[in-house]
Amino acid sequence: MQDTESSWIIEAQNGDDSAFVQLIEAYQKPVYNLCYRMLSNPDDAEDAAQETFLRVFKAIRRFDNSRPFGTWLLSIAAHYCIDQIRKRRMSLVSLEDMPYLELSNQEPGPEANASHKEDQEQVRSLLSPLNPIDRAAVVMYYWYDFSYDEIAEVLELTLSSVKSRLHRARRAMAQVWLKKRPQTLQLERKGHESPAF
Question: Cα–Cα distance between 90 and 160 in angstroms, integer?
């Protein structure tokens, strides 16, 4: 795939529109998913994905072939989404303890469809209070397995800033999680209390 992708990139840089279409087809799902997780709206995500590919089309001749294309492409999408979020606005539980954050790439069966939609809504509610850059860092780290270094490069941050932002985002998301689950928390606490005789 890497060799094929490299040839598509070179051909697209030389003006071959069909090679660019191949790149779109290869990356449309990851770009849309990133935009959807950041913007929490399918229509906005679709618009953002289209805008991302338009920007990539205009800038592809300047793309540095020594860089990973996927990272560059997703950074364009992330920055666009950050701008859109900013325009809209003019005891802690770790993310690993929130099981529904592990969203599968597989299509759910009919029996899991309702649960999947509920999980997506819960994820949106956790991500929505975060500032745009923190949200981008969380999405890149947990859904796209970007390293701290890659996130720092994409978002133009220092490594320590990325770690700090992810830590702060986890705390904020945990607070939202705990506020939405007070009854569950009380029941768990009662379960740990010694029984009265």
Answer: 27
**Single residue among 40, 55, 90 that ends a domain in this structure:** 90
Measured over the CA atoms of residue 26, residue 28, residue 31 and residue 37, the dihedral's sign is negative
> What gap in Å lies between CA 146 and CA 194, rounded to an integer?
44
pLDDT tens string 48-73: 999 999 999 999 999 999 989 999 99
Strand, coil or helix: 164: helix
Q: What does each C-alpha distance from 58 to 44, 131, 146 come to in angstroms? A: 21, 28, 25
Please answer whether residues 53 and 24 qualify as being in contact, where contact means their C-beta atoms are separated by less than 8 angstroms.
yes
Q: What pTM value is reported for the model?
A: 0.60
pLDDT tens string 81-96: 988 887 776 533 444 4
Quote the distance between the C-alpha of residue 67 and its chain's center. Answer: 20
C-alpha to C-alpha distance for 20 and 56, rounded to whole angstroms: 9
Cα distances from 191 to residues 121, 151, 185, 188, in angstroms, run 28, 41, 10, 5
52: containing domain: 1-90
The domain boundary residue, chosen from 90, 107, 133: 90
Token pair for residue 165?
């932002």
CA angle centred on 56, ends 52 and 62, rounded to 5°: 150
